[in-house]
Design brief:
This protein is of the alpha/beta class and 219 residues long. The protein has 2 domains: 111 residues, 3-Layer(aba) Sandwich (D-Maltodextrin-Binding Protein, domain 2), CATH 3.40.190.10; 103 residues, D-Maltodextrin-Binding Protein, domain 2, CATH 3.40.190.10. 36% of the residues lie in helices and 26% in strands. Strands 1, 2, 3, 4, 5, 6, 7, 8, 9 and 10 form a 10-stranded mixed beta sheet that branches. The radius of gyration is 18 Å and the shape is elongated.
């Protein structure tokens, strides 16, 4: 059985897998990358994507609409290398000042968080200043760059930041400068027989406690 899953639930899912009834082959990538692979004809048994991505594929019959399960909610946050001071990001103005004062930062081009962040700094009027010192990775965990000491700040979904060692999560962006993503699971058409019980197990296993421990919120 094969699962195509957004990076946003990687930490929680990896922690839960030892309890799983099956041992699936899991491909973790940003939703945008997974959608591109599916568009090119790639298939699996279970998909965990943003709710919008699942809805679009369900409308086309690639995923089975009746199997949709909302699993978690994710928000965007900021992390620093381990031991570094935690900047203030409690208000939009504090976040703006922190981004301008940072000597370097990193965000992702392909992920939903990176797309939102690029729009946010445009809205705040600081895109030119921020991008002049930013490392923009094509995909993957931005916190890995910060953990190596190559960026002072890492921006991504809080759950994705928490998946990396060697960093400290400062917290989510303030509500006025944040967005939420709902991660949804569904079965592909002609999924393997064990796919449905696996998705049922995953929905049960993602308790509020397990989600919050991985930087996510209940859907």
């Amino acid at each position: 059985m094969r699962v195509m899953s957004t990076l946003g639930i990687a930490l929680v899912l990896r922690r839960l897998l030892p309890q799983a009834p099956f041992a699936p082959d899991i491909l973790f990538e940003p939703t945008a990358r997974l959608l591109a692979r599916i568009e090119a004809g790639e298939r699996a048994d279970v998909a965990v994507l943003t709710d919008a991505g699942v809805e679009a594929l369900a409308d086309r019959g690639v995923l089975v609409p009746a199997t949709r399960r909302d699993l978690a909610v994710s928000r965007i946050g900021l992390a620093v290398p381990k031991g570094a001071p935690h900047p203030r990001i409690g208000t939009v103005e504090e976040l703006r000042e922190t981004l301008l004062a940072a000597p370097s930062l990193v965000y992702s081009r392909a992920g939903a968080s990176g797309i939102f962040f690029a729009e946010l700094i445009e809205r705040l009027g600081i895109a030119e200043a921020v991008n002049a010192k930013a490392t923009v990775i094509p995909q993957g965990f931005t916190a890995e760059v910060a953990a190596r000491g190559e960026a002072a700040l890492a921006i991504q979904q809080v759950s994705e930041l928490m998946a990396v060692e060697g960093i400290e999560v400062v917290g989510p962006f303030p509500p006025e400068a944040n967005t939420s993503a709902v991660f949804t699971g569904a079965l592909f058409a002609r999924a393997a027989p064990e796919a449905a019980p696996f998705l049922d197990w995953l929905a049960r296993a993602m308790t509020p406690e397990a989600l919050r421990a991985g930087g996510l919120e209940p859907a």
